[in-house]
Write a structure and sequence with these properties.
This protein is mainly α and 438 residues long. 70% of the residues lie in helices and 0% in strands.
Length: 438
């Protein structure tokens, strides 16, 4: 099995992460241990099934191949529009033109439109609602959270902010703990439409990256719920506790309408991501300029040699968490950088920098890259906080005050939930596993 000390560090990390959540808890005496234990058991069973059980491993590999095949189909429309600009590095088009290198705007982001349409089709034909109901039943039955919470958490495995629509009838009456949980579940997972972007960013470094991302977002859902229920425990009785609730869907009239609506949703998502990246990268650059000027003066009078940038400062805070989830010490500093920048620059930038680090040898241990992939697999960043609070409040405007109150706690819970998912991957990581090969 080739188990190392870092596998045991990851086990310890699970309890340290829950301890951090406990220190930040709103009502420590009200923490429901059943929810915590049940959530961890669900994560453990799923991780065992995927990483250890032979049939689970085969399922993992099949999912990876399916996603990669679908992604290859998505490139047809991209290359038609952008020509060689749409070709992934190393590929050659039908007319003999070769790729000129990776370009986020013309390769990864347009694939979101295709995946958004595909998800819309799966909803229209009824497959996606079945999967959502299945996961919702598991969360509600074993974790004993409210029906609305379980439905929202299960929806977030497949979609993003749209998950708030499936529980629209219940939002007005949800408790603060429930609101914190649905926000944490939203920010602690990724939408299936974003898979294409992450796969394109990391496929050269991880041939099995698609399977890892699917398993990560499934693991992350109960993890986010666990952390949310520690940080903001329930002190009231939810209306849908012990009740199976039906998802609220506005089904299109036909499949063509579903495809077009999905594509339009994808376009909005691409524009939103592009605008966010332009704004955040520019603002962070400006902040780094100011920090650099002040920092250089401070370095000159103190004799220090510190890189004064927002990314470096956040990496200092992220470093202990990189260590406790099982990142080898030689790579912990580098992984801390991407964990820190995810908080302000989104997971897209963090994944891109992670891929660069692996490609140029900055990260040398395969374990570091794999655990980092799981740690970054979530919308747990400042921009997402604004998106989810704004999106849910748009559906339930009367709850904007409560949503604003629990928003920051939900972001912390989502971040800790992503790290919890990373710790589970670190527990089962072995060098000779076909799942973790690079």
């Amino acid at each position: 099995m080739n188990i190392t000390i870092y596998n045991f560090v990851s086990i310890t990390g699970i309890f340290i992460l829950m301890g951090c959540a406990w220190l930040l808890s709103k009502h420590r005496r009200n923490i429901n241990t059943r929810i915590i234990v049940a959530g961890l058991i669900i994560q453990c069973i799923f991780a065992l099934f995927i990483f250890i059980v032979p049939i689970g491993t085969k399922v993992f590999l099949v999912i990876n191949e399916i996603v990669v095949a679908i992604l290859n189909s998505a490139t047809a429309g991209i290359v038609f529009l952008f020509g060689p600009l749409g070709l992934s590095p190393g590929n050659v088009g039908d007319n003999g033109e070769a790729s000129i290198g990776f370009i986020l705007a013309t390769q990864a982001l347009p694939a979101i439109i295709f995946f958004a349409s595909l998800v819309a089709i799966l909803y229209y034909v009824g497959l996606m609602p079945i999967l959502v109901r299945g996961f919702s039943y598991i969360f509600s039955k074993f974790m004993r959270i409210s029906g609305a919470e379980s439905l929202s958490a299960s929806s977030n495995i497949f979609v993003g902010i749209e998950s708030s629509l499936v529980i629209r009838p219940y939002l007005e009456r949800m408790t603060k703990s429930e609101l914190c949980t649905i926000l944490a579940a939203g920010m602690g997972t990724i939408a299936s439409s974003m898979l294409a972007t992450y796969v394109m960013l990391l496929h050269n470094q991880f041939p099995n990256i698609a399977g890892h991302l699917v398993s990560a977002t499934i693991l992350a859902a109960p993890g986010a719920v666990v952390m949310a229920k520690i940080i903001y425990p329930e002190t009231e009785k939810p209306d849908t506790l012990g009740v199976t609730v039906k998802a609220f869907y506005e089904r299109e009239n036909n499949i063509i309408e579903a495809i077009l609506n999905g594509a339009n949703t994808g376009v909005k998502l691409v524009i939103g991501i592009s605008a966010t990246l332009i704004a955040l990268l520019g603002l962070v650059s400006l902040i780094d300029l100011i920090l650099g000027l002040l920092g250089s003066y401070f370095n000159s009078i103190t004799g220090m040699d510190f890189d004064w940038s927002l990314r470096s400062l956040l990496s200092l805070a992220a470093y202990p968490f990189a260590v406790i989830v099982g990142i080898p010490l030689a790579d912990a500093g580098s992984i801390a950088l991407v964990l820190g920048e995810r908080l302000i620059l989104t997971e897209v930038v963090a994944y891109r920098h992670l891929a660069d680090m692996i490609a140029d040898g900055t990260i040398s241990d395969p374990r570091s890259g794999v655990v980092a992939v799981y740690a970054l697999c979530g919308f747990a960043h400042v921009a997402s906080l604004a998106i989810f609070v704004g999106g849910v409040s748009a559906v339930a405007p009367s709850r904007i005050k409560e949503l604003s109150e629990v928003g920051v706690r939900a972001l912390i819970a989502a971040t800790l939930g992503c790290l919890l998912t990373a710790a589970w991957s670190g527990i089962f990581f072995t060098q000779n596993s076909i799942l973790f090969g690079s």
